[in-house]
Write a structure and sequence with these properties.
By secondary structure, this protein is of the alpha+beta class. The protein contains 2 helices and 6 strands. The protein has one domain: 60s Ribosomal Protein L30, Chain: A (2-Layer Sandwich). A hairpin with a 2-residue loop joins strand 2 and strand 3. Helix 1 packs across helix 2.
Length: 132
């Protein structure tokens, strides 16, 4: 059976979901928004760079609650509301979180809108290392 994780330290959900689901060593993280877990009603950071950093930090927070980190991520899906305008800067910021030789598989799509008026949302799949 899958394990359903909702962490009190994680960002406040903006919809009815778990922060992560885990089954057979696979960990699926819900898309993270650029909200501050310590101030969920605060305005979003300005611009794609700041919002991407916040989203990546939120992913790191949820992974950390599971005893994992970004090195365990095997796939990301990224959603941008201003694709043409923000794609290049998004790539630069996103890439700073992964070594050149350890980047997960990724899909990035332009969308018409995201929850809370965000410019970016990222979800991911991680794999827990096999026991030694």
């Amino acid at each position: 059976m899958p394990d359903f994780h909702l962490f009190p330290t994680g960002p406040r959900p903006v919809a009815p979901f778990s922060h992560a689901i885990e089954t057979d060593g696979w960990v699926i993280l819900t898309g993270q928004m650029p909200t501050d877990p310590n101030a969920p009603d605060a305005p979003l950071p300005d611009g794609i760079d700041a919002q991407t950093h916040r989203v990546m930090q939120n992913l790191e927070l949820i992974l950390g609650e599971l005893g994992l980190n970004l090195s365990h991520v095997v796939q990301c899906r990224c959603f941008l509301t201003e694709f043409d305008r923000d794609y290049a800067q998004f790539n630069t910021t996103y890439a700073s979180y992964f070594p050149d030789d350890r980047r997960p598989a990724r899909t990035t799509v332009g969308v018409t809108a995201l929850a809370v008026g965000a410019l970016v949302e990222i979800d991911c799949v991680a794999r827990r290392p096999a026991p030694a």
